[in-house]
Each structure stands twice: as C-alpha cells, then as structure tokens.
Specification:
single chain; 154 residues; mainly alpha; elongated
Length: 154
C-alpha cells in the first residue's frame, strides 16, 4: 500500500544516496579527467562534496527522525537506525574534521605541495581516510536503498 511517509523517506534517501553516487563516482572523476588544472578540479570537487555533506546531514537527520517516529518496535533494535546514524557520523567526520584539516594544509601551501613534502604526505593520508569514509557512507546508503527504511506497521 502507498504511504506518504514511505514515499517521503524514499525521496529523501534517493536525494542523499543518489548524490553520493553521482558526485563521488561520476562527477568528481570526470572533473579530474577533463580539466587540465588538477587544483581547479580539486577545488570544484571539494565544494561539491561539502554541499553534498550538508545535504546528507539534513537528509540523514530527517530520515533518522522519521524512522524513529514511525518505529513499530523499540527503535534501538532497528538496524536501519544504526545504518543512518553511522552514515551521519561518517559524513560529520568528513565535513567537520577531515575537510578543515585538508583545507589548512592547502592554505599553508598556496602554490601547491612539493611531491616529497610532509604536507603532501599528510594531505594524501587525510584524502585517503576521507575517501574511505565516503566509500563506506555510499555503500551503507546502497544497503538502505536495497532493503528500504520500512520499520513500521503499515
């Protein structure tokens, strides 16, 4: 049976997870493939990921509240809540911890990193952690798309 709550959840989930997959696995790689200036590609991709992170925080919070509100059983036993909470945590870590650290490194080297510098190595490590968190978030989102958010008796 059609449910407005379920339809709203599907739309919000599609916005968030679709954005993750579109930006992360299509748009950002295309920027680096088509633009000759890697710094410009990185700046554009960084802005897109930041916007996507805020969209994710809003969407994830709305989904979390709606799943808890519609729970037919104790909400701590609902696996979708834990998946959403993990996605929100990973998104928050990326946006509010890793991104500022990466921005600070870039600001300290306005002409770019020398390949063997400590700053380049640290940036690479932070970028790798950020990419891993993004991958985990996008895969968790895919799990929710596949199995859904329905936790209530409809």
């Amino acid at each position: 049976m059609f449910s407005y709550m379920g339809a709203g959840q599907r739309i919000v989930l599609t916005l968030w997870v679709g954005g993750l997959w579109s930006v992360g696995y299509m748009v950002a790689p295309m920027l680096f493939h088509t633009l000759d200036d890697r710094r410009l590609a990185g700046a554009i991709a960084g802005e897109m990921f930041s916007v996507l992170n805020y969209i994710g925080l809003v969407c994830g919070t709305l989904l979390l509240v709606s799943v808890i509100a519609g729970a037919a059983r104790p909400w701590l036993r609902i696996w979708q809540i834990w998946v959403l909470a993990a996605m929100l945590l990973l998104t928050g870590i990326g946006e509010f911890i890793l991104q500022p650290m990466m921005q600070a490194l870039k600001a300290a080297a306005p002409q770019g990193f020398t390949p063997d510098s400590t700053a380049a190595a640290r940036f690479g490590m932070l970028h790798g952690v950020s990419s891993t968190l993004f991958l985990a978030t996008s895969l968790l989102g895919l799990v929710l798309v596949i199995f859904g958010l329905k936790t209530s008796k409809e």
